[in-house]
Design a protein that fits this description.
Number of strands: 13
Protein name: PLP-dependent transferase
InterPro entries: Aminotransferase_I/II_large (IPR004839), Ethylene_sulfur-biosynth (IPR050478), NHTrfase_class1_PyrdxlP-BS (IPR004838), PyrdxlP-dep_Trfase (IPR015424), PyrdxlP-dep_Trfase_major (IPR015421), PyrdxlP-dep_Trfase_small (IPR015422)
CATH topology of the largest domain: Aspartate Aminotransferase, domain 2
CATH superfamily of the largest domain: Type I PLP-dependent aspartate aminotransferase-like (Major domain)
Keywords: Pyridoxal phosphate, Transferase
Family: Belongs to the class-I pyridoxal-phosphate-dependent aminotransferase family.
Oligomer: single chain
Helix content: 25-40%
Radius of gyration: 22 Å
Shape: globular
Strand order of the largest sheet: 2-8-7-6-5-3-4
Order of helices and strands: HHEHHEHEHEHEHEEEHHHEEHHEEEH
GO molecular function: pyridoxal phosphate binding; transaminase activity
Length: 441
């Protein structure tokens, strides 16, 4: 028997297969390294200026002032309070807020809500609860990059990206592509496709799904007994587009607002919402699953939610905010106006410098832009193939200390596209544009 002495290097303890998969994912997940070195003109001038993270900073001062005035903790907040699914006060406040703002066909009750520490955890809960390892969720391209990890890393479900080719990915015609993808996956693997996941309003395209598309998806999910999950985290970040006047804009309609009679069994429908985007409060880590007709899901959630218990401070301040109608009405209206102004300013810069962008957005706080075209015009001999172009441009952006979300992680169908977030003060956007132009020029 060989015993390792102190002078020998011990053999590393092997990871589990799950741990190995997480390590590999973490190696490619560099965004936390980027935001830990944020640019600041005074304190960190050599840092990285990020317009890639979906953070809305436009009303931080307003929200902070409200929190400082209204944060009142009691002894209950030093205990487990009402349990890991969210306090009674918080779930009552969320249901009150959603009933005022989302126009639900059936009023949302506190018992319909499972609170989680952010919407990523909410998606993971749904994946873990409804899918066995190897079973699949359909995601239409392009899609929010973190969905793939939320669905698959720990639940070990599979993401099936759905190519739309020349079809508008939000149009009723896109549903045919979802159906074909489900049939092909099940035929190829023998495993079920168990869900379709939407982000409505869409991330990264910044548009809302028309009712006709949602209805067709409901019928498809009913026919194939798939769950339909609608991530509506940008629901109230819908604003007036003052630039793209030639586009017919689709208003936001929550899936909660639909009468699903003759469309789909309601136990297959689940909506996600949280504080991160509409209230510019990513750091509070408050998300919610609204499942109105599946009580068994909530029974399972009682067990799983111990791992996604939000802090008492986040619970208390969120409950206070969402119960305050006067504050939320003013906040949402002001936020929409500021987003409209910021979008107009940034898109004007894009037009000035000849950068192509996806027209027609009226929701969220990002624009889908084509930097590959500008880069190729400035460097005609450096084309690359497919995703190589996107990676090449991203490398140039990082060399110029500016971070945008690469289309590679978003399932972009065409190389060279990036998501840029405009919900920042004007000086931040101006500095970002200087660095972007330097990178592609």
């Amino acid at each position: 028997m060989s015993i390792t002495t102190s002078s020998e290097t011990p053999t590393p303890t092997p990871f589990s297969n799950r741990g190995q998969k997480a390590m590999e994912a973490g190696t490619n997940h560099t965004v936390w390294d980027i935001i830990s070195n944020k640019w600041d003109p005074e304190t960190n001038p050599s840092g990285i200026l990020s317009v890639g993270m979906a953070e809305n900073t436009l009303l931080h001062d307003t929200l902070l002032q409200y929190i400082h005035t209204n944060m009142h903790l009691s002894a209950d907040h030093l205990t487990y309070n009402n349990g890991s699914m969210g306090s009674n006060a918080l779930r009552a406040a969320i249901s009150h807020f959603l009933n005022r703002r989302f126009n639900p066909f059936h009023p949302v009750q506190p018992r319909h809500i499972l609170v989680t520490n952010g919407c990523s955890s909410a998606i993971e809960h749904l994946s873990f609860t409804f899918l066995n390892p190897g079973e699949a969720v359909l995601l239409g391209k392009s899609y929010y990059s973190a969905f793939t990890m939320d669905i698959s890393l720990r639940p070990e479900a599979v993401v099936v990206p759905v190519s739309m080719r020349d079809v508008d990915p939000l149009s009723p015609g896109s549903v045919d592509a979802y159906e074909k993808a489900a049939i092909l996956y099940e035929k190829r693997t023998g495993k079920r496709v168990r869900a379709v996941l939407l982000c409505n309003p869409h991330n990264p395209l910044g548009r809302c799904y028309p009712r006709a598309t949602i209805d067709r998806l409901m019928r498809l999910c009913q026919a194939r007994k798939m769950h339909l999950i609608s991530d509506e985290i940008y629901a109230l970040s819908v604003w007036e587009n003052r630039v793209d006047g030639d586009v017919l804009f689709t208003p936001f309609e929550s899936m909660l607002s639909r009468d699903t009679t003759n469309l789909i069994d309601p136990d297959l429908l689940h909506v996600i919402w949280g504080m991160s985007k509409d209230f510019g409060a990513n750091g509070l880590r408050v998300g919610a699953i609204i499942s109105q007709a599946n009580p068994d899901f909530h029974v399972a959630g009682k067990c799983l939610s111990i791992y996604t218990f939000i802090s008492a401070m986040s619970d208390q301040i969120t409950a206070t905010i969402l119960a305050d109608d006067a504050f939320t009405d003013k906040y949402v209206a002001t936020n929409r106006e500021k987003l409209a102004q910021a979008h107009e300013f940034f898109v004007t810069l894009l037009n000035k410098h000849g950068i192509e962008y996806e027209h027609g957005c009226n929701a969220g706080f990002f624009v889908w832009i084509n930097l590959g075209k500008n880069y190729l015009e400035a460097h005609p001999g450096e084309g690359g193939q497919g995703g190589e172009l996107t990676d090449m441009v991203y490398q140039k952006l990082m060399e110029n200390r500016v971070h945008l979300a690469s289309g590679t992680g978003y399932g972009a169908e065409t190389p060279g596209w990036f998501r840029v977030v405009f919900a920042h003060p004007v000086p931040w956007l101006e500095e970002a544009m200087v660095r972007i132009l330097r990178a592609v020029g």
